[in-house]
Write a structure and sequence with these properties.
The complex is a heterodimer of chains A (254) and B (409).
Chain A (H helix, E strand, L loop, with lengths): L2 E4 L2 E3 L21 E3 L1 H17 L3 E6 L4 H11 L3 E6 L8 H15 L3 E5 L10 H9 L3 E11 L2 E7 L5 E7 L2 E5 L11 H10 L3 E4 L30 H14 L4
Parallel strand pairs in A: 1-4, 1-6, 4-5, 5-11, 6-10, 7-10
Antiparallel strand pairs in A: 2-3, 7-8, 8-9
Helix pairs in contact in A: 2-5, 3-4
Chain B lengths: L1 H18 L14 H5 L10 H9 L3 H4 L13 H5 L6 H15 L5 H13 L24 H4 L3 E6 L2 H5 L4 H13 L4 E3 L9 H5 L3 H17 L2 E6 L2 H10 L9 E3 H7 L1 H4 L9 E5 L13 H8 L4 E4 L21 H8 L3 H13 L2 H4 L5 E6 L4 H11 L7 E4 H9 L2
Parallel strand pairs in B: 1-2, 1-3, 3-4, 5-6, 5-7, 7-8
Helix pairs in contact in B: 10-21, 14-16, 18-20
The chains are: A alpha/beta (254), B alpha/beta (409).
Chain lengths: 254, 409
């Protein structure tokens, strides 16, 4: 039972996102990248499955800044192989290009199951999972929050809007878009990550030219603008709180 | 299986004796249970401190690690204070047990979140490291940030996590700035180059993360010239004074209560405004029990005209923790689930007992103040007051806020 987990890194929203002068891309000057949260859940789910069923887990990530830390942390958590895919992964790279590049590596690894996060906050051209599934000619199920292996198939729990849960069976190999792992991503002590840095080697593979066909062309990128009817409350915390209470009182809400 | 269990416990004790200062004292434990009686949360722990030692002696470390109640430990040194055999209970035993629990993956989710944030942003609050000095951005005169000023200073102010970022703790940070300016102290801060002191991360079992913070702070210290380090954060003080030197990072360091007490002659004439208040002082664990600083904060308070200092039932060496130590700042939900109690509320109740409630004191027109000297405490006690019937009107103030008010700065 071999699993590949595909992770991508997204802008860390702890720093405010700024837009470049041409108004079409995110300014990367102070931007830091962080593992996409649902991808972290996909990684956790893969390690849980390995602990339960045996087999190996391979994690693949794009060779952007901070990826080494993500891959060493994954190794410390329990992955067996860490692939760093190098290539021209700039801020404008789209999911079509990533999916094609990752699919090539996944195809070679011939896993039974491919897990990735169901979505990322910087997806502009659809989620990565279904695109990869298309290029790999495999079935895809998204919004998954539980996976049970059953021989050549696996049973998954898929979340629907409105609190509905669907249970379905899928033939392997398949791609699953993970919404949340069975348990929250585990903590790994810094000492264990440091140890992984000393003992684990990253498997660096080069991706050929990235094919971005199918992605969108951005005509304008901008911060949310307040609408005509919106009232922005200004001032320090006390003034804002006072004004809020007044508004809620006037509206008869409190 | 039996042999393996004996091995891990023996290994634990062996390492304890080898690596913890005074560690060999663990062998002197006579199981009196004083530590567990003094522990504010001893009553909910499956293995309070003396129970931990009993389990280790019985070769049952692995069984002990299955319980999560060691996370109730607030690293407050109450156990250490009363131990007749002088065993380093807080510095060694409970901290090492938490380390083992962390390595075994037995970590409450709330704590995990803070540790991950500290790993990524170098502060457990998860704030942007670039904004560490944002509190000082609009101050006049402008605060010296070492990287910009490129000059030696007399005093390097290590601001710390909560004093930098927490909105409730910031007013004390600003008051401290005003006093330093009024006293004409030549000081500077590291700004974004400063990271968490790491002490509470260490006491929450993350020694690797602590070492990471030490490395980062040490390389910032090394770049600049200064005569001493000064901090308002007792946890940072404890780390810089006692723990960094173990990793060969050694600078003279003072908590502000020490720094200002040394300058009391200069300060006294500046304390012009009377503050008509009855004041209790909450001894922070890492000033008091961990570092024996009891007199300085009281001297400063008593120098303020109008202030009447009253002692709470737990004070000085047997002071009661605010609940924020040893990872407690990031375990409120977990601890409420276990104990259905908040130590900060017990403490506020003691303050009310000592000072009287609003009804009994309103006639005299005197304010009732719970004075503190640690940035963890303002949010903890302010929240406790909000949820405690009878505590209305009790004011939480850092000593520096009272000094600044009296100085009129």
């Amino acid at each position: 039972m071999d699993i590949v987990v595909v992770v991508k890194l997204v802008p860390d929203l702890v720093e405010e996102i700024e837009i470049t002068g041409d108004g079409k891309t995110v300014d990367t000057t102070f931007m830091r990248l962080i593992i996409n949260e649902p991808d972290d859940h996909a990684l956790e789910q893969a390690i849980i499955l390995k602990e339960r069923e045996g087999g190996e887990v391979t994690v693949i990530g794009p060779g952007v800044e901070d990826i080494d830390g993500v891959l060493f942390t994954a190794a410390a958590k329990g992955t067996d192989r860490q692939i760093k895919l190098t290539g021209d992964f700039d801020v404008e790279v789209n999911n079509h290009a990533l999916a094609r590049a990752f699919a090539n590596v996944v195809r070679e690894a011939q896993p039974d199951l491919i897990l990735t996060g169901v979505q990322a906050h910087n997806d502009m051209d659809g989620a990565l999972g279904p695109l990869m599934a298309e290029y790999l000619e495999m079935p895809y199920i998204g919004y998954v929050s539980g996976v049970v292996m059953e021989g050549e198939t696996c049973n998954v729990r898929k979340e629907y809007p409105g609190g509905l849960i669907g249970e379905m069976q899928v033939n392997l190999p398949a791609v699953l878009g993970i919404q949340s792992a069975e348990s929250p991503p585990r903590y790994v002590a810094v000492s264990k990550v440091r140890q992984a840095m000393k003992t684990v080697t990253l498997d660096e593979q080069t991706s050929s030219d990235l094919d971005r066909k199918g992605g969108p062309a951005v005509s304008r990128m901008f911060q949310p603008e307040s609408g005509e009817r919106a009232e922005m409350i200004e001032g320090d915390i006390d003034n804002i709180a006072e004004k809020l209470v007044e508004i809620l009182r006037t509206a008869d809400a409190i | 299986m039996e042999t393996k269990m004996i091995d891990t416990s023996t290994e634990f004790i062996y390492q304890f004796v080898e690596t913890v200062p005074e560690g060999e004292r663990i062998r002197l434990c006579l199981q009196c249970g004083a530590c567990s009686g003094a522990c504010p949360f001893g009553f909910v722990m499956d293995f309070p401190p003396h129970g931990m030692i009993a389990m280790l002696r019985a070769g049952l470390l692995d069984d002990m690690l299955k319980s999560d109640t060691a996370w109730m430990c607030v690293s407050c040194y109450a156990c250490t204070e009363v131990c007749p055999a002088n065993i380093p209970v807080t510095a060694g035993l409970t901290t090492r047990v938490k380390e083992e629990m962390l390595l075994a993956g037995n970590v409450p989710t709330e704590l995990q979140d803070a540790l991950e944030k500290a790993q990524r942003y170098f502060n457990p609050l998860g704030e942007s490291p670039r904004k560490r000095a944002e509190w000082a951005s609009e101050l006049e005169p402008e605060i010296t940030i070492m990287a910009k000023a490129k000059r030696p200073v007399d005093v390097l102010w290590f601001v710390g996590d909560y004093a930098s970022y927490h909105p409730s703790a910031r007013s004390a940070t600003l008051a401290l700035t005003k006093i330093l300016n009024a006293l004409d102290v030549d000081f500077g801060i590291l700004g974004p180059e400063e990271v968490s002191d790491g002490d509470s991360l260490r006491l929450a079992g993350e020694s690797g993360l602590f070492e990471m913070m030490v490395d980062k702070n040490a390389s910032a210290f090394e770049k600049y010239e200064f005569n001493k380090i000064f901090t308002s954060d007792p946890h940072a003080y404890n780390a810089l004074k006692n723990e960094y030197p173990r990793l060969d990072i050694s600078y003279p360091v003072q908590h502000y209560t020490q720094f200002f007490t040394e300058r009391l002659e200069q300060i006294q004439p500046l304390l012009k405004n009377s503050i008509d208040a009855d004041v209790v002082f909450h001894d922070p664990c890492y000033l008091g029990r961990a570092n024996d600083i009891y007199e300085e904060p009281r001297q400063l308070l008593q120098s303020i005209p109008g202030v009447e200092l009253v002692e709470m039932s737990h004070c000085r060496g047997n002071s009661l923790c605010c609940g924020g130590g040893g990872g407690g700042m990031w375990l409120d939900g977990f601890r409420w689930e276990k104990a259905e109690a908040r130590i900060s509320e017990w403490r506020v109740r003691e303050a009310v007992s000592a000072l009287g409630n609003q009804e009994t004191t309103s006639k005299g027109g005197r304010a009732r103040i719970l004075a503190i000297a640690c940035p963890y405490e303002t949010p903890r006690f302010e929240d406790a007051i909000k949820s405690m019937p009878g505590a209305e009107g009790l004011i939480v103030k850092d000593i520096v806020e009272l000094l600044a008010e009296s100085m009129g700065v």
